[in-house]
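I hope you will forgive my troubling you with a question about protein structure. Here, with my thanks, is the record as I have it:
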Amino acid sequence: MTRMLVPRVLIAAALLMLSTAPAALLNDPANPVQLRAGTEIGFIKVLSHKIQLGENGTLFDYVNEGGQENLYPFSRLSLDLGIHNRHTVTFLYQPLDLQTKALFLRDVTVDSLVFPALTPVDLRYFFDFYRLSYLYDFLPAAEKELSVGLSLQFRDASISFASQDGKLFRTTQNVGPVPILKARLHLPFGRQSFLGAEIDGFYASDRIFNGAQFKFEGSILDASVRYGLRFNDALTGFINWRFLGGGAKGKGYNTPGPSDGYTNNALGTGALTVGFYVN
């Protein structure tokens, strides 16, 4: 619940300011550097999610076997720093913490440990990330945007399987950077409305990196479309649909514990949110 508190407070504050906001809350309009704060809140649905930990591990279906059928709370926080209307540096924080309970109906092997059929298990898939991006806008008009750039994403992942009696437990944790390509579109129509789209994507494999010493495959796709209303110069609201997913398949080295370092993880989700930008 505490993870959702900050976005809720920001949205409540934005609504209170809606009718009384001045031309800008965070910036001097004459300043070439402009700051924009954004937040969105809603729900996320896991469309597909499968994982295998260990080369001899079970390919486990989180949706059909692991209790990830429900809707889960979803939120984002972002900051944009615009420079001379053409350059933008953005920072994004994206939490994702899926905790479920399940009764295994078959034997499931996780990093060489067997969870027998009919074992009640606590599952956690934690995958927060932080993303720093740079964008260059190819459209000179201030009210339009077609930007392309690069992102550097830092993942903070923790995946665990734990029997409810405490006797069986496996976990894998990982922190690391990922380079990503980024594009963003903003097109106004009418006096206050706009359509927007944003995509962050990346794919790599050992075939691309010929010097790789082991086989691997990795991908990220964070794509969204939105419809918004500009209430005034200080406050903008929007409704957003997002696909968030990706995968990793390969074997690392020097992995501590019982793991042989092999992971096959593929996730696809859809999220519906409402949000606000404050200038």
